[in-house]
Amino acid sequence: MTIIMKPRDYDLQALWKPFTANRQFKAAPRIFVSARDMHYTTDDGRQVLDGTAGLWCVNAGHSRPRIVDAIKRQLDTMDYSPAFQMGHPGEFRVADLIRQLAPGDLDHVFFANSGSEAVDSALKIALAYHRARGEGHRNVLIGRERGYHGVGFGGISVGGIPANRKAYGSMLPRVDHLPHTHNPEKNAFSRGQPAWGAHLADDLETRIIALHDASNIAAVIVEPVAGSTGVLVPPKGYLERLRAICDKHGLLLIFDEVITGFGRTGRAFAAETFGVVPDMITFAKGVTNATIPLSGVIVRRQIYDTVINNAPPGMVELFHGYTYSGHPVATAAAEATLGLYHEEKLFDRAREIAPHFENAVHTLKGVPHVIDVRNFGLMAGIDLEPRPGKPGARAFDAFLRCFEQGVLTRVTGETIALSPPLIISRNQIDELVGAIAGVLRKLD
Ligand code: PXG
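Predict the joint structure of the above. Result:
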């Protein structure tokens, strides 16, 4: 493999980078040119240990030949097949594989291309389901503060990140939000699920249902572990209570598993890890090991049956879908990825190495600036004390220094987030955490 290591021969200006400080980035760009297993290579030839699986997505490590070869073979065979009214074998096979990984009777899969589209699809399926049942008045959607469900108008409406919402007007009109579960006063330095906070789920019944009436509410969407806002682990009993309240009042419960899916919590889905079966699961990222975009929604049989059987024979049942739903190259990537996860038992591996990861990240307690550490599976959030009047600046500096030292971390607000590929070794975990500790000790 040739690695380009020459002065940059391209102009940086035309590109508008997403969720990036463009001016700052272009003044000092960070460019990757290749990747293999646990490491990236930068354009100045440095190796960088990937502590974040790209953006929480490269669960099997980078450029795995089995996946790459499957993509190449598919491209040589058939580039594209129409998503609507035509089919190809790969999309059926991958839906079947995903069904086998899903909990309970979640056994039908709708494909999209990004987590954002998966979320929009799930919200629309929830509305279509209630309408098919003759309860079209159930159209209020409930999200949660600090939730991240992508960047579509549906996702930002149920999402709970002020910066992602404030510039975009009124969004979906009938939405409410549960309180988030993060409480450092009660739960700082918790290992795994915090003990305090299950009662926060009761807000769904005592405030939200009381305000809107259950008969108007379609669905509740939460991330089982909130990723983007800093690895917020559900308190013990919290998800169980949400499930019980949804059941009592006929609300659909959607788990957004875009981050937690495919082994991140030590099982295929966090639903299985926590023993709580939702009505729908959204997935993306790890389904193809991030090689080719693919996402989707897994729904319970009854949801599929209700929507399908409500339409007259021969008619389209759900007026929704994307040109690239179930794209053959993406499903080829997914089939190879799911095969690799199975063959290498990577979800078990994540579960087995998680205690070492937990111990390692909790050694950061007592290191300068660290005010909280949280972890679950192979995810961790490390909160830094902000510099007065400069929100996020210290954490961002830590990220830059870590990168200079050869480890990739991710920063969100005041939190350093870690979510390494599930193939990470014990030594590499120690290297990652050691580098962070070293950086923090020198940081002002
Ligand atoms: N739901 C969840 C729970 C997510 O984490 C999305 C939906 C949207 O997925 P797409 O594919 O549309 O980006 C996400 C995405 C980060 C980070 O570091 C998190 C995401 C994406 C990029 C960065 O916090 N999550």
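The chain is about 40% helix and 15% strand.
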